[in-house]
Amino acid sequence: MVSRVASSDELQVRFWGIRGSTCASGPQFMEFGGHTACVEIRCGERLFIVDAGTGIAALGSALGENVPDTIDILFSHLHLDHVGGLPFFKPALTKERLVRTYCGNLDGDSAMDSLDKLFSPPLFPVRLSQFPARFEHVGFKAGEILTFDDGTAVETHSLNHPGGATGYRFRHGCRSVCYISDVEHTEAWPDEALADFVRGADLMIYDGMFSEAEYPRCRGWGHSTWEKGVDLARAAGVKAVAIFHLYPGHDDACLRALEAEMQAVMPTAFIARERQSLTLDASGGEAVADWYRAAKVPAV
Ligand SMILES: [Zn+2]
Ligand SMILES: [Zn+2]
Predict the structure, then answer these.
(1) Domain Metallo-beta-lactamase: where (predicted)?
(2) Which helix (H) or strand (E) holds 167?
(3) Which ligand ends up closest to the CA of 221?
(4) How many A from CA of 76 to the centre of ligand 1?
(5) Has residue 1 got a pLDDT over 90?
(6) Is the pLDDT of residue 149 over 50?
(7) Under 8 Å CB-to-CB from 297, ≥6 apart: which residues?
(8) Which of 128, 225, 246, 298 is least surrounded by Cβ atoms within 10 Å, i.e. has the fewest?
(9) In this predicted model, what pLDDT tens digit does every residue of 170-215 receive, in sequence order?
(10) What pLDDT, on a 0 to 100 scale, did the predictor assign at position 241?
């Protein structure tokens, strides 16, 4: 059940947690899933993990023995739905290895102090520093380009969210994927700087927690709508959109209806499903539609 390791020219995305705010559970949530934010991104064989919501536990189990000695976890920000799964990430519990976290919304400070506060008694029985893995916490300012030991670079962008959040753009070969969560759209939309950041991407993972009909009640909460995601994608020439950070009250029937509405406007937009896996190969062009169709069948 482990996703196959991508060949060197592929960019692979797998959703392990797609909910925002808190988990959803029950028979009415089986299709889209219930865990909070966690996405596996493979640039060839190179693993990146974006956010450590509760979905990261299943990712850790699925990795099995196929775990690099150094694991990079990129946080959008540190709200609970993006960090709560971290102590349940098996590779950090089983072996001495390096887990590096990256946080870009604390004015250059790392996640260390915040995570120490959260994962210590009486809130949590043990500290991350007591784990077999060694944690290293890296702080940066959203907007900077992250460069890793192996020369890989990931672009970042500051997002409009209470306390700030960081968007990421992964490029590999001729493909690119953007992760834009958590974000609230602005009055003037699409935001020009954000449109520049995501321009021409093959896939944009976008915070579409609400619909436009629901949004007036949720204004100022730091989240957006699928409609604004589609507007941004169209303005910036983004080829496909995965709506993400799903409202925990939206069950399968509701999300299927929203997806149908959305696809009437943009056929390559869809709502992310837990464990759904997408492969973007090096061929470009028409392949986008091919991997999109493949993605409609959840790989479990
Ligand atoms: Zn969130
Ligand atoms: Zn948040």
Answers:
(1) 35-209
(2) strand 165-172
(3) 2
(4) 9
(5) no
(6) yes
(7) none
(8) 298
(9) 999 889 999 999 999 999 999 999 999 999 999 999 999 999 999 9
(10) 96
Taking alpha carbons only, the member of 133, 114, 134, 132 closest to residue 124 is 114
Q: Tell me what pLDDT residue 282 has.
A: 75
Six token digits for residue 130 = 């007591």
Chain centroid to Cα 89, Å, comes to 16
Q: Rounded to the nearest whole angstrom, what is the distance from the C-alpha of residue 287 to the centroid of ligand 2?
A: 33
Give the whole-angstrom CA distance, residue 10 versus residue 173: 7
Q: How many angstroms is it from 182 CA to the middle of ligand 2?
A: 5
- Whether the model pTM is above 0.85: yes
What are the boundaries of each domain within the chain?
11-295
CATH of 11-295, one of 3.40.50.720, 3.40.309.10, 3.60.15.10, 3.30.450.70: 3.60.15.10
* Residue 79 DSSP symbol: -
Pairing of strands 70-74, 153-159: unpaired
